[in-house]
C-alpha cells in the first residue's frame, strides 16, 4: 500500500508522518502542494505544521493549493484521507469536514500528552481500535478549538461522527470536548492531536509501563492499511 504525505510551505510534521506510514507497514510517498498529481497513492495524509504561516486562518491558504483539488476529488471517490492538526484545519477549510478550528480559548499555544477516547471505530483511520478505547496522543496547537453551529454539532453527535474526544481536560475549548471528526462515509478523518508522535517505543508519551513507551498513534495508520486491504 502507498500512502501519500503532502508537504506545504510551513509543514513541520511531514517527515514524522512519513515515518509513521513506514512503521505501520506501508510505503510513504512524498507529495508536493504545488502539483496536480497524487502519484497513484492509496491514501493521503495532510500533516501538521503552520502552512503559509497560518496567515488569514490556519489551513485556509493551504486548502486552495493545487494538490487540494486532487485531494478533494480523491476523498469524494472514497480514498482514505487523514488531516492531523494543521491538516484537520485544511480539511475543514476545504469543506471535506464540517465545522472549523479557532484560537484556543485560553489564548496560548499548548503542548502536552493528551488522553482521548476513540468514539467511532468504523472509519478508515480508527477501525483498529476497540470500542471506546482510551489512548494518549501528543497535542500541540494554538488554534485547536473545534466549533460549529448547534445544528451541525447535533448532527455530528447523532450520526456518530465524532471520531475522538478529549478526556481529563479540554485543552482548547472545543465544543463537546471534540478532538476529531469524520465525514459521513468514514474515509476522511481530522484530529488535532498528533498520532505520528506516538508510534515507537522510546519516543512516545509516558505510560504506566514505562517512560516514553506509548504507541497508541500507530493504530491510526495500521487502521488505514487494514481498510485498504479489506477494500481491495
Describe the structure.
The protein is an alpha/beta fold and 232 residues long. Helices cover 23% and strands 25% of the residues. The chain contains 5 helices and 11 strands, in the order E-H-E-E-H-E-H-E-E-E-E-H-E-E-E-H. It has a 9-stranded mixed beta sheet, with helices on both faces. Strands 5-8 form a two-stranded antiparallel sheet. Strand 1, helix 1 and strand 2 form a beta-alpha-beta unit.
**Mind summarizing the main beta sheet?**
9 strands, mixed
Structural class: alpha/beta
Low-confidence stretches: none
Architecture (CATH level 2) name:
3-Layer(aba) Sandwich
Q: Summarize model confidence as the mean pLDDT.
A: 97
- How much is the radius of gyration in Å? 16 Å
- State the helicity in percent bands: 10-25%
Amount of beta strand? 15-25%
In one word, what is the shape?
globular
Order of helices and strands: EHEEHEHEEEEHEEEH
Brief sketch in words of this structure:
This protein is of the alpha/beta class and 232 residues long. The chain is built from 5 helices and 11 strands.
List the helices and strands and how they pair.
Elements: E1 2-7, H1 14-24, E2 27-32, E3 43-46, H2 66-77, E4 81-84, H3 86-93, E5 100-102, E6 110-118, E7 134-141, E8 145-147, H4 150-158, E9 162-166, E10 178-182, E11 188-191, H5 218-231
Parallel strand pairs: 1-2, 1-3, 3-4, 4-11
Antiparallel strand pairs: 5-8, 6-7, 6-9, 9-10, 10-11
Helix pairs in contact: 1-5
